[in-house]
Amino acid sequence: MMGIVCQPMKLRYVSWLMIIVSLSFCPCLHCDELQPPDADRDVQAAPPLPSTGVRPERMDPEDEIKAYLVRILGEKGLEPGYARVLVEDPRLVFDPGFILKNLRTAPPKASPKTPGIMEYDPVYVTRGRDFMETYREQLRIIEERFGTSPEIITSILIVETRLGTYPLKYRAMRVFANMTLAQDPVFIASLEGHYSALSRLLKEEETLKAATAKAKWASGELYELIVLAGSLGLDPHEIIGSVSGALGPAQFIPSTFRKYGVDGNGDGRKDPFDMADAMASIGSYLSTSGWREGADEQRLRTAIWRYNHSDIYVNTILKLYRELSDT
Fold first, then answer.
1. Cα distance between residue 272 and residue 290, in whole Å
2. Strand locations in the chain, DSSP E?
3. Lesser CB count within 10 Å: N end or C end of the chain?
4. Per-domain boundaries in the chain
5. pTM for this entry
6. 122-168+242-325 domain in CATH 3.40.50.970?
7. How many beta carbons lie within 10 A of that of residue 205, not counting itself?
8. Reduced to 3 DSSP states, what percent helix, strand and coil does the chain have, rounded to the nearest 5?
9. Span 154-167, average pLDDT
């Protein structure tokens, strides 16, 4: 793993206005607005958090929040010293907005023009065919290995990231760390007086239950991200993904890529950001999920459903798949 210089850090927050503006954001073609997401912002340091009265005999809230993350990562298996270096890094901005964004992530929306299917520019069918021509040999090898056609691989890539062209600008380490904190009482208490709207929201039983479930999931993904970064010789703080922490052209979360990721170009690495590896990994995942070319409709739908649990998503993928197959 790359060495990271440990520097003292003040806990920093972004403005509540930015959080409210971004509530409906969706980082890929899954939404009907196809504008790029906000860039990963440089956030101005805020004054130190006030004392919350929570376990004051131990340490101040800032240090306790960081210690919480170190403990969680240690429980997952990360060496505590390295966990502390990562958590103390000034690039790890603590932004409650990531909790809110991921609690309110909108599912894929159907187009008013085509009920049950997401709206997409027909130009992507043409671009998809060009893409298949560009990667013809690699897609042929993937089909032989996993039984997944160039058309289904390309359809997934169109919807996920517009064939790898969609700008993903969120630091995945920041995303997962902030979501993990939704189950930390000290962090939640520290929101009082700073982000009272979010604080009130997390006092609602159902919302807190959902946030806690997300936090447990995110803590595992945070660990998986760090391990994945180590396997690739990358600084985990420099890995960029979606607002939900999904990585690369195929938008795999770290744990899924670590399990199903495939070396598609023979370089000995499984890299979610490499197009050849991303394509092969889609093939691997769909094959494991039961995809078989020429199978009945229900079997195809079930395999795609594992990629995204949305009927609208499944409908859209199948529509693109058939359009790309129609020569």
1. 22
2. 170-171, 240-241
3. C
4. 61-92+170-232, 122-168+242-325
5. 0.81
6. no
7. 7
8. 55, 0, 45
9. 98
